Amino acid sequence: MKQTLKILVVDDNEVDRMAVRDALTKAGVQMELFEVSDGNDAFSALSTTAYDCVFFDYHLPDQHGLTFIQQLHSSKIKVPSVVLTAQGDEQIAVQLIKAGATDYLSKSKISPEMLVQVLRSAIRIYRAETQAALVNQQLRESHEQLLRKNQELERQQQQIQMQNFKLLEVSQLKSHFLATMSHELRTPMNAIIGFSQILFRSKFGQLSHQQADMVERILNNGKHLLMLVNEVLDFSKLEAGRLDLKAEIFDVSKVINLAVGEMRSLADAKNLSLLVQTDLQNTLVFNDPVRIKQILINLLSNAIKFTEHGEIWVEVKELSASQVTIVVRDTGIGIAPRDFKRIFEAFRQVDQTITRKYPGTGLGLAIIDSLVRMMGGKIFLESKLGIGSMFKIELPRQIRLFTEAADAPAIQLDGDEIYSSVKNPHHSSSQTR
Ligand code: ADP
Question: Exposed end of the chain (fewer CB within 10 Å): N or C?
C-alpha cells in the first residue's frame, strides 16, 4: 500500500484507539488517521470526507454497531468498514457483515500484522464488491435496454403485420375490382363487335365507302379494347390463383400456325416478314391450346409492335423427347439488360411515360410469365438494343396439372412414353425467367 490512506477510527475508548493507531504505525502504513469517539461524529465525518477504511467499535456510546452500519447503508455512504469486537462478540460480527460491514476483528487480536492484513483485505473486498456492483448495474441497464428494444421490435412487428394485412386487403380489393370491371366491360364490347360485324353483311344494305370505313374502325377498336380487357381479366384471375389450365392433347404446330395466321395482317401492315419454322418429330403435346396460342400471340404482337424494319421468326423444335421450345425472334428496338427482369413485372414497360410511342397495358409478359410457370416451363430472353430480341420458351411436352396425383402415369403420345418435367418452375437470371 504505497499511497497515503485516509483511515477513520471510531471508538470511545482512548486506549483502544491508541492500540489501532500504534499497530498501524508499526506496520508502516502510510496514512492520515482520524479519530472520533461516537457514531454521530463518525457519521458526520464520513458524510463529508471520503475515507479508505473505517475501523469502528461495536459498542459505541450513542448507538451500537448494527445501527451505525445500517445508517451508513441507508445514507448510501460507501466505505470499507471493519468492526472491532470484544472477545465473544463474533456472532454479532457475522450479523454486521450481513448488514454491510466489510470485515471484523476481535480487539484481543489487534497486532500490526493482523491489522494491516485486515485493512488490506477490507479494501480489496470493498473494491471487488464495488466492481461487481458496477458490472451488475451495467448488466441490469443493458438488460433493460434489451427489453425496451425487444418491446420496440415487437411493436414494429405488429405494425408491419397490420400494414401487411391492410395491403393484402387493398390488393384483394384491387384484384376484385379489376376482375369485376373487366368482366362487366366484356359484355358491351362483344355487342359492339358483334353489331359492327352484322353491319358489314349485305342483307342490311350496302354501306357507303365512308360508312364502311367508320364501321371497320369501330370493329378494330372494339377488338383491340376487348383484347385489353381480356388481358386485365386474365391477369386478375392469375393473381387470385383462379386461372386453371384446361389441358388436352393437341397438335402444337397447328396452334402455332393459327396464331401466326391471326398476326400476319399486322406484320404485313408494317412490311415485316413473318417466318415460321417447325421442326418436330412429334407434334403432339399435352397442354392448354388456348393458353399456348395466347402466349404466342402476346410474343408476336410485341415483336411486331417493337419492330420497324426486318423480320420476325417463329421457331418450334424439340429440346428432347419430353421438351418443346418455342422461339420468337425479331429485329426490333431491343431491350437493355437492366430491363430484362423488370419487363416481366405487371404494368411494367421500358418506357413508362404517358407520351410513350408504343401502346399497351404492360401485362402481356407478366401473364406469359405466370402461364409458363404454371406449365412448369422456363423463359429465356436475349436482346441487344437496336439489334433485336429473342424470347425462348421451354415447355414440358406434357404439363402436370395441380389436381393430378403426383405419381399419375405419364400419358402415351405417339407411342413414346413422355414424363412431365415440372421440376423447377421458378427461374430467374439476367437472361432466364
Ligand atoms: P406491353 O407490350 O403491353 O407494353 P408487355 O408486358 O407485353 O406489355 O411488355 C412489357 C415491355 O417489355 C414492353 O412495354 C416493352 O418495353 C418491352 N418489350 C416486350 N417485348 C419486346 C420486344 N419484342 N422488343 C422490345 N421490347 C419489348
Answer: N
Residue 303: alpha-carbon gap to chain centroid: 37
In a domain, 129, yes or no: no
- Give the pocket of ligand 1 (CB within 6 Å): 298, 302-303, 306, 330, 332-333, 335, 343, 349-350, 360-366, 389
- Domain co-membership, 414 together with 272: yes
- Using the 8-state DSSP alphabet, how is residue 409 labeled? P
Q: How far is the CA of 108 from the centre of ligand 1 (A)?
A: 102
Residue closest by Cα to atom 14 of ligand 1: 349
- Verify that 66 and 42 share a domain, yes or no: yes
Q: Kindly state whether residues 385 and 268 are assigned to the same domain.
A: yes
**306 C-alpha vs ligand 1 centroid, how far in Å?**
8
From atom 25 of ligand 1, which residue's Cα is the shortest distance away? Answer: 334
Encode pLDDT of 204-223 as tens digits: 778 889 989 999 999 989 99
**Residues 8, 9, 10, 13, Cα dihedral to 10°:** -160
The pick from 238, 270, 302, 390 for probing ligand 1's pocket by mutation, whose C-beta has the most ligand atoms within 8 angstroms, reads 302
C-alpha count within 13 angstroms, C-beta hemisphere, residue 137: 6
Taking the centre of ligand 1 as the mean of its atom positions, its distance from the CA of residue 307, in whole angstroms, is 11
pLDDT tens column, 341-353? 889 998 877 776 6
CA of 286 to the centre of ligand 1 (A): 28
Residues 6+ away with beta carbon under 8 Å from 112: 23, 24, 26, 27
Average pLDDT over residues 380-401: 94
Q: Check whether residue 219 and residue 256 sit in a common domain.
A: no
**314 and 385 fall within a common domain:** yes
Same-domain status, 314 and 253: yes
Residue 125 included in any domain: no
Ligand 1 pocket mutation, candidates 234, 235, 365, criterion most atoms within 8 A of CB: 365
* pLDDT at 406 > cutoff 60: no
Say if residue 264 is in the same domain as residue 372: yes
Do 249 and 211 lie in one domain? The reply is: no
Contact residues for 342 (Cβ-Cβ < 8 A; gap 6+) = 348, 350
Query: Based on the structure, what is the number of domains in the chain?
Result: 3
Instruction: Output the domain CATH number for residue 372.
Output: 3.30.565.10
**Residue with CA nearest ligand 1 atom 19:** 302
Distance CA 179, CA 175 (A): 6
Q: Report the distance separating Cα 65 and Cα 72, nearest Å.
A: 11
Task: Give per-residue pLDDT as tens, 357-390.
Answer: 777 778 899 999 999 999 999 999 999 999 999 9
